[in-house]
Each structure stands twice: as structure tokens, then as C-alpha cells.
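Handover notes (outgoing to incoming on-call)

Open items:
1. 3-deoxy-manno-octulosonate cytidylyltransferase: sequence verified, structure written out, both below. Nothing else pending on this one.
2. Nothing else urgent.
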Amino acid sequence: MHITGILPARWGSSRFPGKPLHEIAGKALIHHVWDRCQQCKMLDDVWVATDDPRIEEAVRAFGGKAIMTSDSHPTGTDRLAEAIEKLPATTHVVNIQGDEPLIDPALIDELATLMTVEPELDMATAANPLDPSDPAVGDPNVVKVVTAIDGRALYFSRSPLPYFRNQVAGLPVYRHKGIYAYRRGFIQQFVAWPPSLLEQAESLEQLRALENGASIKVIPTHDTAPGVDTPEQALEVERILLSTSS
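3-deoxy-manno-octulosonate cytidylyltransferase C-alpha cells:
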């Protein structure tokens, strides 16, 4: 078994072009995420998968490893599929978002460990518990997930999920966190399937996996570290980094 951490990092972004190289607290955003991954104990290797030579050059300059991929991939999973074709030793992949500079290395290790315990599991991901009264529950930019008793995902949605027609004490709402672990063979199967109807309706590629009968294990986590989608969020993350290092 060989578990590889892959950080997808593309240049194009309608809200934040060049985001991976945006400087935060003296380092490029992607450099911060790379450094977090170096603290992991369960990853055998870490690579940045990018579509732009400027990102590739920057990653190599700070001592990282980068794989060039196409700039026309419709999903992050398609980018992973191309990357692992160049990594024949890889049996399992943890997809770490390249815009989460505060990601907890322990969460990455937890997902990697799960794949060693259940090596035939198709996918694994994570979710934060939310209070049902939290305004985020109604925010379509916040993806929710409900699970079966054994922790496997039943459905992901941008709508409030579940809908509380009746108040049920102790039933949490889970906010999906965009980190995934995959079995190599499943990634190759996933990208061979056409985009599914639910995936297109919700704009959530993980629904393609569920619609095709895949099993996705969801780990509850209290890692609520914010990602960076806008320059304003970059400033907030910089404030957090500077305050914790002082």
C-alpha cells in the first residue's frame, strides 16, 4: 500500500486568479498547504497537481514536487486521475485542497489510516457537526451531508439537510469538508462515468459516486479551519497565521 497526498492547484479562478501563488504571511498559499502535509505521518508521498508552469516552478523552488496536468479538466477528480497515471506506485490518494492553509495534518492522517483499515473502501471524506440553528445550514455555498448509522454517506446537498419537519434531539447537521481519500482503481472508474443528473443539479461531483453505487465513508471532525476563496479570506487567514506564530 502506498498512500499519496495530492494537492490540486489550478491557476484560473473567476474570483481569485493565481490564487495558489498568492502570498500569505510571507509564503505562497500552496506552500502553506504543502508544509501542513509534511507534518503528516501516514502519507508516503506528496505532490502538487497543477495546470500552470508558474505554479510548477514555484512549488519546485520551495522544495516541493509538482506534476503538470491538463488545463481542461472539468473536475478535481479528473485532475487526480491524470496525476496518478504518472505515479504507478500509488494505491490510495488523499486529495487535499490546495486552498486550505490551516488544514489539520491529523485529519489527513485519519483519512489515510481509514484507507489502510478498509483498503477496499471506494472513498472517504470528512464533515463538521453544525447546530441546526446555524445560519450556514441554509447557505447554498455550504454543502451538507447525511449519513447512515455506519457513517456512510446517504446524500450531499446545498439545501438544508436533513429538513427538520420534526425537531429531533441529538440529530446534528453535518457540513461537508472538501477533503477526500480514494482507492486508485475507484478514481479511474469515477472519471469513466458521465456526469450524473444529481451531480449536474447540485453541482457536486461526489453525487456521481453515490448515484453509481459507490460507498463513501464520512469521518466527523472538529477541524473547522477556513479555506481561501477570495482575497478577503486570504487576509483573514493571514491574520490567524500571524497571531498563532507570535
